[in-house]
């Protein structure tokens, strides 16, 4: 994914400063799903604090999904759907890796309808690179191009990259009550 995460805060005099900068933790591609990458950028509780030196909330996360009123930001790369799978592709290992790397979200994917999932959140998705289709119930599909923004209001959906290049999306999820 090669993205950097820069986090700001304040010094002891209250002046703004960069408190950490470096590669986006967890941004490396998935081992069992070639070309797919997903990294939790940041997460807030329902009542976030503006700490001078914020601790990394992405460490030891029990769920990438936010609590009601909390937020999660993720950067996701979807490989082209036509990309051939390795000969030794193991769907069970891919599902286990998804659940391990994206706890709380990985378990929401439907085994009988690959890629489909639903979360109790309002999601803002911005397509940064490539093209991708948003799939909804009954086969409804909408093609997104770079700069397009999707507001998901707790709907069941899947993402399909039918293009020839990776598609990269930024998601901000706000935990909601259904």
Key descriptive features of the protein:
178 residues, mainly beta, Jelly Rolls, 5-stranded antiparallel β-sheet, 3-stranded antiparallel β-sheet, 1 helix, globular, OryJ/VirC-like, Cupin_2, Cupin domain-containing protein
Give your account of this protein's structure.
The structure is a single chain. The chain has a five-stranded antiparallel β-sheet, with no helix packed on it. Strands 7-6-9 form a three-stranded antiparallel β-sheet, with no helix packed on it. Strands 1-2 form a two-stranded antiparallel ribbon. It contains one helix and ten strands; from the N terminus they run ββββαββββββ. Strand 6 (about 130-135) and strand 7 form a beta hairpin. The two termini are about 35 Å apart. It has one domain (about 25-175): Jelly Rolls. The protein has about 180 residues and is mainly beta. The protein has one helix spanning about 90-100, and strands spanning about 5-10, 15-25, 35-45, 70-80, 120-130, 130-135, 140-145, 150-155, 160, 165-175. The mean pLDDT is about 95.
Looking across the biggest beta sheet, what order are the strands in? Answer: 3-4-10-5-8
Radius of gyration: 17 Å
Q: What amount of the residues lies in strands? A: 35-45%
In the CATH hierarchy, the architecture is: Sandwich
Main sheet attributes: strand count, strand direction, barrel closure: 5 strands, antiparallel
CATH topology grouping: Jelly Rolls
What percent of residues adopt helix (DSSP H or I)?
under 10%
Task: Give unreliable regions as ranges.
Answer: none
CATH class: Mainly Beta
Average residue-wise pLDDT: 94
**Could you state the CATH homologous superfamily?**
Jelly Rolls
- Helix tally equals 1
Number of domains: 1
- Measured between the Cα atoms of the first and last residue, the distance is 33 Å
The chain-level structural class is mainly beta
Number of DSSP-assigned strands: 10
Shape: globular
Helix-strand pattern: EEEEHEEEEEE
């Amino acid at each position: 994914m090669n993205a950097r995460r820069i986090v700001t805060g304040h010094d002891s005099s209250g002046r703004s400063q960069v408190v950490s900068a470096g590669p986006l933790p967890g941004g490396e591609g998935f081992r069992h799903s070639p070309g797919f990458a997903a990294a939790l950028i940041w997460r807030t509780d329902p009542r976030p604090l503006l700490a001078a030196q914020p601790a990394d909330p992405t460490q030891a996360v029990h769920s990438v999904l936010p609590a009601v009123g909390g937020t999660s930001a993720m950067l996701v790369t979807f490989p082209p759907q036509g990309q051939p799978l390795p000969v030794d592709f193991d769907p069970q290992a891919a599902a286990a890796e998804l659940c391990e790397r994206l706890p709380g979200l990985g378990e929401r994917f439907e085994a009988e309808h690959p890629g489909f999932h639903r979360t109790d959140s309002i999601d803002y998705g911005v397509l940064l690179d490539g093209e991708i289709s948003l799939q909804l119930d009954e086969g409804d599909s909408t093609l997104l191009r770079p700069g397009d923004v999707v507001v998901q209001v707790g709907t069941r959906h899947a993402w399909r990259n039918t293009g020839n290049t990776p598609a990269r999306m930024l998601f901000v999820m706000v935990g909601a009550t259904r």
